[in-house]
Every structure is written in C-alpha cells, then in structure tokens.
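Reviewer comment 2.1 asked that we show a complete input and output for one of the modelled complexes. We chose the pyridoxal-5'-phosphate case, as it is the one discussed in the main text.
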Amino acid sequence: MSVTATAIPSSPADDAAHPLPPRLLGLTHLANNIAWSWNRDARNLFREIDETLWQQLQHNPILLLRYVPAERLATLAANPEFCARYDRVMRWLAAEHNDEHTWYAQTYPELRGKPVAYFCAEFGFHNSVPIYSGGLGVLAGDHCKSASDLGVPLVGMGIFYRDGYFDQRVGPDGWQTDSPDSFDLTSVPIQPVPGIGGEPYLTSVRTFGRDVYIRVWRMMVGRVPVYLLDSDLEENHQDDRPLLSKLYAGGPALRLRQEWLLGVGGVRVLQALGIAPAAWHANEGHAGFMLLERVRALCADGVPFDDAVKQVRASSVFTTHTPVPAGHDQFSVEQVQECAGPIWEEMGVPAEKVLQIGFHPSAGRGVFHMTAACIRLSRRVNGVSERHGAVSRVLCNPLWPDRKADDVPVGHITNGVHLATWMANPIMQLLDEHLGTVWGAERDRTMWERVLTLDDEKLWGTHLRLKHVLMRLVREKARQNYRKGMLQSPQLVGAGTLLDPHALTIGFARRFATYKRANLLFRDVERLRKLVTNSARPVQFVFSGKAHPADTPGKQVLQSVYQFTRDPQFEGRIAFIEDYGMHLAHLLVQGVDLWMNLPRVPLEASGTSGMKAGLNGVPQLSTIDGWWEEGYDGTNGWAIEPEVDDDIGDRTADRLYTLLEEQIVPAFYDRDDEDVPTRWLATMKNAIRVAGTQFTGRRMVEQYVRAYYAPAILGDALQDDPPVS
Ligand SMILES: *Cc1c(COP(=O)(O)O)cnc(C)c1O
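Response of the prediction step:
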C-alpha cells in the first residue's frame, strides 16, 4: 500500500525539502535506519512532529520530514521537552552502532566481526518499503531485526523490486484487480552503494549470453546492513533493465533469472565490498544459486569440484519453508543450462555434474530442483516448525533412499516474530509497569509467567483502546476511498463501516491461497448467520489479504468471501479490508479479539500472524498445523483437531462452528459487574505468555546461532551426511 499523491498535502514548497533546524539535524539519520520503526521513543518522536501527517503518510518518516512545515520544526527545536526526548533517541541510535553489550558479543566473543550472510528473495521490514509479498518476506525482516538486537553480525542480501508488489483493489463484483505499486526512491531509507572506480555498478553476471550489470542499494536495519540488487542501469540491454523490478511476476523463465542474479550477483557483490562471510544462510530455495556460485568461485581458485562442494556444504545453512512438493522451485535443466551456462567450464567438470546437484528423484531427470540443490550444498538444513520438520524429512527422504524418514538429517527451528515490531505500544507500557523495564530482552519463562497476574481491568481497557484504533482506521480508510471514488456506496458496508466495537471481532488476514481456506467459514451459511446476528452476543469477522496476481482460484475464494460482506442477512458484520500489508497487519493483530486460521493440514509450514496476535493478547483459533501444534497448550486459544479424511473441510467447519457456539462466544460475553470478561482475559494473558516465551524472533535467531551459525563458523567436526548424488 503505497502512499498515493492524494494523501500528501500540497504546498508550494513540497518538493524542495527544507533544511532541518540545526538542533534537530539527527532526524535525517534516524529516518534512514529502519530501526526507528521498532524503537518506541523514536516512533513517538516522529508522531509528535505532526500526528495527522504521520497517519496520512502511513508512518514514513522520510516523507514526514519532507512535508512538515518548517515553522513546526522550528517550534519543536525551541521546545526543551521535545529536545530532551530527541536527545534520548539520538543516544539510543548511537548505541546501535556498537555491539559490545549484545547477547552475541557476550556469548560468542571469539566470533565477533565474522559475518553471516543471509540471502532471501524478499524482505518485509516496514510498510514504507514494499519489496515483500507476505509471510516469507516479513519473516526475513524479523530475522534481520532480531539479529540486530542480539548483535549477530548478519549481512542481508535481497532484491530491490522497484515496482514493489502490487496495490490491491476489489471491485463491486468482488474481483481483485492488481495495480502497480511503484515507489519513489527518495521516500525509502536506502542509500546507493557506489561502484568501484566510479562505475555505477558493483558487479556483473553473465546470463542468457549477456552480461547483466548490477548496482546495489543498502538499507540499514539497526546494526544489520541489507544489500538490495538492482539491474535498472543504462549499461544493461533494455530487456535486462527490468529483470529485478517486479516481485514474483512473470513465469518461471523470469523467476529463474531473478534467482540467478540474486545468488550469483549477491556473492560477487559481497566480494566486491570486501565482506567475507564465515557462514551462509539460504532462506528458502529461491536463494540457492548463492551456493552454486561459491562452488564456482572456489573451483576458479583451483579447488577441485568435489572439494569445493564439501567446503561450501560445511559453511552453509538452508531453511525450507514449503510443505508440498509442488511448492518447491523447479526449473527445466535446459532452462538452467541456458541461464547459467557455461559455468561448468570454470568448474572443470561436465555440465551434467553441475546439473546433478539439482536432481530430485521424485521430480525426475529433466528437472533442476532448487530444494535438492540447496540440500546438497548445505550441511545444515531445517524446516520452520516441528511439524514442518517432520513433513520435510518425508519430502526429502528420496534424497536418502536407504533411510527411514526419521533419520533424514533435516531439523527444525520454529519461526518467531520480532517482538518490538509487532507488540503494540500500550501493551508494552503495561508490561513495563508490571514487569519492570528490562523485560523486552528477557526470555525467562518465570518472567513471562508473571503476565498471568496482570490487572484484568487494565489489560481489558488497553485492548479496547486498540480495538477502537482498528475500527476507526477501518472507517477512515473507507471514507477516504469513498471520497476518491475507489469505493461505491454499496461497498461501504462491506468495507467495515458498520463494525461494532462491542461485538466479538474475529480477524482473518493472510494471503488468499486456497489452502488457507478463508471460505470455510461459509460452509453452513445459516449456522453462521445465527452466530453473527445474535443481537445479545453478536460476532463479526474482518477479512483481509491479497491473492497472488496469477492465482485465479485464490481470487475466486476472495470473491466468494467478498460477496458475503455485501449480503444484508449478515447485517454488515462481515468486512473485507483491502490491501493487506504490514501496516494493516499491525492494526489487525493488535485490534481484533480473536485470530482465526484454517489451513488445510499440513499445508501451513509455520504461520506467523497468530504469534503476532498472541503478543498482543489476541488468542488464536486454528487448525492444528504449523506452529500451533507447539503453541497451543489448552490455555491460550482454541484448536481444531486435524481430521485425516477431511479434504473438503466439512468436519473442520462443523468443529469451527461448535467451538464458536459453545466455548468462544460464551467466554467472550461472560462479564463481571464491571463488564470485564474475566474468563476471556485469562486466555488473553496466556496468549501473551506463550508467544513471549516461545515465539519471538529472539528465540528463533538464538537457535539459529547456537545450532547452525556458530558451529558452521567454528567448523565443528559434525559428521557429514550428504544425500546421494
Ligand atoms: C505476518 C504476515 C504474514 C504471514 O502471516 P501467516 O500467518 O504466515 O499467514 C503475511 N503478510 C503480512 C503483511 C504479515 O505481516
């Protein structure tokens, strides 16, 4: 959701950014490190500059500093209280440049300064930088943020998608239309990295018979630099200039080139910058060519191919995120040969030997399977939840045909979410008061137990405030879109304008992929109608999410859900909010009463939005899949047991209605004399406790360091266990 020109106030001085008052000069620096987004004082500082503008610009500090009137800044520069708050933020920012007191520096002093490269095809850091599409990107962003907090010397590598992802509009007929989401380079916190010797590019990669020159943008994520590759250069053939501009667009041929440029280009860029990683992490198969390029580079230095493969394996980590065979990136070997050729010449081996690296017995000889390639070139491999680890061992079993699935060397590290990004300010304040001020850095179980003694009325009051923020935003968004002619009057009800802040509000927001089954709720329309329209105990649902532009079945699910939002029999209690992204995700996970997730088991590798909700005291109702198998403990939400033969979902739907009717609605409306739902609050507190103890990015990155990064850097004598070749 990019900021459209209409959101920006017009004033004559618009484009000529006025200089900041000398007293507040550091604000530019602050706005250019995305760490501001997870520091409460920094966020508050920007908000204080101009609250209305801050909202309108969807929390983009670079634009805020450009559009705020100079007089306002002058006033603030003369305000001692503001300046004191400013100074405090500046001290924090300065400390961000030093990692001496971090967990990593204290736990692994000998590993300080040894970089860990982290490659991923997308990164979701903040709404103002739209180079992500969904869960994988947001997870990668949270990984970098948590690494920064912990002092892990991570270096990110990704792609600078100039055209962003896409803006979603849903027409009166419920059909999603996708409009480009390009963004203004001067509105995002990225800096161009100069090339060597005055060239604009840092490296080049040969593909399909042409050299593609690559330039690089750097984004600072706290202490972690993330480099983003870009091929839009005059030096490139005009067909190659847009190769990296669009995220997940085009067919496999374009995907292949993007992955090739990311992997090969990324390794060369690090080398050009003089960064020599001691461990390398490929996050999902898209990043796999990074491993191959390192084999090539070693061979070019005279290392024999088989030894090069061993060396690369020893220092590499691969995380798979896909629980179904079809979800793994696969290319035809002819395509790969055309794209990559002739790197085998430099490797001193026949092409077949290189292509063999991507051989997966289940996919056949003609296929280069990215997951198989990553597994052959990484000694450490993991899935993203306990259940997904087990599913991955089965999927990968053909690579170790003489073993039982349980003995396949694929582990798991369950995903986590970056607490300071996802927990709402008011909840953090409540925890400050209750737990003391250092709780954010703690992973101590007994400390999180103390959440259970939070004051009921305070927690409920805080939650209601957040719920109001959500409903107000939903109404304002509808109002703006109506004004701009993007919503017609009959659509206003479906946009959530009739939502009632007192009613039990259930959120469902995620990619509209068919396996996520957003439409399962409507299996029995009459039963649902009774639940929703009960005048004493009403229930409302807020949906949000994009379908991938090429996913027609996903768009059909969205359309069917959308039509219910307009159906008068539901009294305006079912809403669909357009253009799901990180901004909306924040408001939803913080402002609904219950988070719903209905993936067809076992198709959700982990899922993370329910963890974000949990941190805000929003319990989850979900099928037992992904993280919920570990996360659900009977106190922190509700679970729908998997039904083995329930492909069509009838039994899951029945269980869903029953849980709502018999447990969830009664618990929510069971109030004491002060109208406080004591029973519900116990579930809320447990949701915070479990998410805080087990599902933060801190826990996740600590595990990656202990289990994978540190051993890889130290070259531990782990027995090597490669798959068959
Ligand atoms: C967290 C998040 C996701 C991933 O949510 P799931 O629970 O894995 O479906 C997707 N999109 C956005 C914008 C998010 O913030």
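Residues 511 and 546 are 5 Å apart (CA to CA). We note this here for comparison with the apo prediction described in Section 3.2.
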